[in-house]
Amino acid sequence: MTSARDIRPRADDLAAQAQYLSTSPSASFHSPSSHGSALTRTVPLVNAKHLKPFATEDIKVLLLENVNQAGRDILKQQGYQVEFLKSSLPEDQLIEKIRDVHVIGIRSKTKLSARVLKEAKNLIVIGCFCIGTNQVDLQYAAEHGIAVFNSPFSNSRSVAELVIGEIICLARQLGDRSNEMHSGTWNKVSNKCWEIRGKTLGIVGYGHIGAQLSVLAESMGMSVIFYDVLNLMALGTARQVNTLEALLGEADFVTCHVPELPETKGMIGQKQFEQMKPGSYLINASRGTVVDIPALIEAMRSGKVAGAALDVYPNEPAGNGDYFNNELNTWGADLRSLKNLILTPHIGGSTEEAQSAIGVEVATALTRYVNEGTTLGAVNLPEVALRSLTIDEPSHARVVYIHKNIPGVLRKVNEILGDHNVDKQMTDSRGDVAYLMADISDVNSTQIKELYQSLESLNSRIMTRILY
Ligand SMILES: NC(=O)c1ccc[n+]([C@@H]2O[C@H](COP(=O)([O-])OP(=O)(O)OC[C@H]3O[C@@H](n4cnc5c(N)ncnc54)[C@H](O)[C@@H]3O)[C@@H](O)[C@H]2O)c1
Predict the structure, then answer these.
(1) How far is the CA of 270 from the centre of ligand 1 (A)?
(2) Which residue is catalytic, options 157, 257, 287, 398?
(3) Are 196 and 335 contained in the same domain?
(4) How far apart are CA 176 and CA 166, in angstroms?
(5) Domain ACT: where (predicted)?
(6) 215, 217, 218, 238: which is closest to 228 by C-alpha?
(7) Closest CA to 143 of 407, 433, 374
(8) Would you call 287 a catalytic residue per the annotation?
(9) CB-based contacts of 448: which residues, under 8 Å, 6+ apart?
């Protein structure tokens, strides 16, 4: 990845026009959010660093909730000013801190509501160093040109490994044997304990996790079949089946890896348990709503299902403690009373490796967005990317124009850009918000400033950034 720091305008060009130069695109050629003061970021700095217009030390980053070291290192290596706090902040302190920063990194505890974001006058991007993004008002952020990134797939391997462990544990009734030993009972049995070699694993949902699992299971000697709404390339000797019913009728172990959608709610219920092989096993490490738990309890009591592992539940507590009770889910006690049932507290993706991978993925996305304007992986803006500018293109500028998706915008924008040579351009929209990126060659800093001001004056404008 070539960072925008490497783009250096010609020294003679810059020296002549130093008074117009910004020290960074966020300080000068970067529009304030519509809720901020226009002056804070549009007045050129007189003490500009002439030979380094993109001064990364101007970018202020606030990292909360003990964001992983790997992610912190990436942001520091960019030269950004990084402030790191181990905990989240109460709302009043958060508002105080967020006023100043261009980038904020959080995990699941920090709530970035519209009330908080309204105060974030300089903010251009939010990094959620986790899977979920419901702690952020995504709509408000999009409408104010603030991109949001997360890391949905960094923990796929961790989930797949947990499922492999659970398949063996269920086949050998390890949970029960361990519990018995903990209470002093020696119970050496082989009845209905199996090797997993030669058994069939049925994967429901062959995405990031399902596909990883497919490879691991085959290497343990299992046959793999899968069901997915998409036609997908099977890995190894795995085989796609056409219906869920076909999968249930053939698999010794059924494991769910589908997203939470209206169509996947209760996807495994009474009818599906009836279609499963007698003495088969069920694993759910996807989302709690996918399996109808009262139906599972019945299927296990009747012996149809010989064992199950659940990592996710329809209602999950917000924190650690004594909360997995009937108040949370009415069937809690019935579930806990079952034999050969492994219950884990949504830890499928909770490993050191996954945390580190999340740190790297989100920090890299933030860096690319700040330096290059690339929105690939953004959860609230259209995904737009252009190939990087290089040091061989010293007088190029990259225009990022986040705007309202209203008729006639592109005509007006292209009238402004049309005075220059537009090397490449891409635009896309997502709901009411659109994102345009264009690389323009042979522009000097006066022209960049004019471009910036012309784009800022359009009534469609949400945020303009010019990277050069
Ligand atoms: N337990 C954990 O800690 C943990 C960690 C990460 C992810 N997850 C969950 O695991 C699930 C899978 O994650 P992923 O990263 O593999 O997702 P993914 O989006 O990569 O894959 C999901 C797959 O399910 C398929 N699918 C969608 N609807 C379907 C349907 N009705 N029937 C059959 N297939 C369907 C999709 O086509 C896709 O191939 C998600 O629910 C995710 O939230 C849990």
Answers:
(1) 21
(2) 287
(3) yes
(4) 13
(5) 398-468
(6) 238
(7) 433
(8) yes
(9) 29, 397, 466, 468
For residue 279, the enclosing domain spans 156-343
The answer to whether residue 257 is catalytic is: no
Name the domain count of the chain.
Answer: 3
Residues 117, 190: one domain? no
216 and 309 part of one domain: yes
* Under 8 Å between Cβ of 424 and 360: no
Give the ligand 1 atom nearest the CA of 287: 41
368 is catalytic: no
C-alpha distance from residue 265 to each of 260, 286, 291, 293 (Å): 7, 11, 7, 11
Q: Nearest residue CA, atom 7 of ligand 1?
A: 286
Both tokens of 412, joined, read 């007006």
Q: Name the catalytic one among 260, 316, 353, 415.
A: 316
Mutate to test the pocket of ligand 1, among 257, 265, 287 (most ligand atoms within 8 A of CB): 257
Instruction: Name all residues whose Cβ lies below 6 A of ligand 1.
Output: 131, 153, 155-156, 159, 204-210, 227-230, 257-261, 263-264, 285-287, 311-312, 346, 348-349
In a domain, 330, yes or no: yes
Q: Please report where in the chains the tokens 């049925």 appear, as a residue.
A: 202
Give the residue among 196, 202, 232 at the shortest CA–CA distance from 214. Answer: 202
What's the distance, CA 70 to chain centroid?
16
* pTM reported for the whole predicted model: 0.80
Mutate to test the pocket of ligand 1, among 134, 150, 159 (most ligand atoms within 8 A of CB): 159
C-alpha of residue 258 to centroid of ligand 1, in Å: 3
Kindly state whether residues 368 and 310 are assigned to the same domain: no
pLDDT in tens, the chain (468 residues): 333 432 223 333 333 333 223 334 444 356 655 444 333 333 333 333 222 335 667 899 999 999 999 999 999 999 999 999 999 999 999 999 999 999 999 998 899 999 999 999 999 999 999 988 989 999 999 999 999 999 999 999 999 999 999 999 999 999 999 999 999 999 999 999 999 999 999 999 999 999 999 999 999 999 999 999 999 999 999 999 999 999 999 999 999 999 999 999 999 999 999 999 999 999 999 999 999 999 999 999 999 999 999 999 999 987 889 999 898 999 999 999 999 999 999 999 999 999 999 999 999 999 999 999 999 999 999 999 998 777 777 788 899 999 999 999 999 999 999 989 999 999 999 999 999 999 999 999 899 999 999 999 999 999 999 988
The domain boundary residue, chosen from 327, 343, 359: 343
